[in-house]
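ok, trying the design again with the full structure, not the truncated one.
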């Protein structure tokens, strides 16, 4: 089954953390393996705004015009194909949570999520309010640098950002989605994280200071969601 979707990802911050590959492997289903860079697995906390979500050829539905979201993800391979595995995606719109879970099998959860930009600094806060998983909270302020760069082939930037597939599980089946967008134009971030307990969803405790922090102002995305890998 195919779900042709289009959307924008805007004001995307990436907070990347090195983690032990064994910890990630224990959290993944059979057939999904950690993808490592220089011997390390990675967890990433990614707050952003999802906007103008619609089935291609149809108008944007009410409630899907702008959706602040924060997700926790890691980097994996299935049959040697690289992709992303989501542990959680937190949004405050219950309709979005239910629709996305049905369509993609990705673990969306209800949460209080607020974000705004003030004098070039982005403020992002979330608090999960969903009984289906452990609690998760996040508070941060961050400001992107002026300079931009592309991800060089083979670099850690390319490994962490240029991913065009994600996986999820529906029962014992692995679900996959192909996404398309222009390569990221990345900026460094000045960041102050006040609270971050989202790593608990993957069985990990993350420090407040990420190993790498980057930012992308926005890309237009198309996605094709299928029911098996």
């Amino acid at each position: 089954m195919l779900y042709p979707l289009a959307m924008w990802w805007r004001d995307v911050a990436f907070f990347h953390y090195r983690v032990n590959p064994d910890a990630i492997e224990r959290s993944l289903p059979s057939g999904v393996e950690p993808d490592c860079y220089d011997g390390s697995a990675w967890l990433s906390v990614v707050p952003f705004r999802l906007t103008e979500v619609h089935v291609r050829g149809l108008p944007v539905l009410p409630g899907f015009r702008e959706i602040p979201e924060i997700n926790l993800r890691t980097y994996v391979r299935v049959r040697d194909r690289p992709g992303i595995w989501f542990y959680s995606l937190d949004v405050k719109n219950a309709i979005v949570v239910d629709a996305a879970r049905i369509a993609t099998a990705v673990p969306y959860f209800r949460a209080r999520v607020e974000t705004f930009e003030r004098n070039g600094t982005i403020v992002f806060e979330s608090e999960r309010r969903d009984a289906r998983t452990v609690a998760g909270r996040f508070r941060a302020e961050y400001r992107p640098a002026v300079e931009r760069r592309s991800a060089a082939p083979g670099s850690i930037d390319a490994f962490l950002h240029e991913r065009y597939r994600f996986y999820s599980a529906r029962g014992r089946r692995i679900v996959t989605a192909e996404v398309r967008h222009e390569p990221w134009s990345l900026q460094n971030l000045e960041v102050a994280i006040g609270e971050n307990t989202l790593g608990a969803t993957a069985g990990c405790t993350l420090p407040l200071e990420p190993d790498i922090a980057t930012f992308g102002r926005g890309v237009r995305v198309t996605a094709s969601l299928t029911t098996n890998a």
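Keeping the full-length input from now on. The helical segments are 21-27, 94-104, 156-161.
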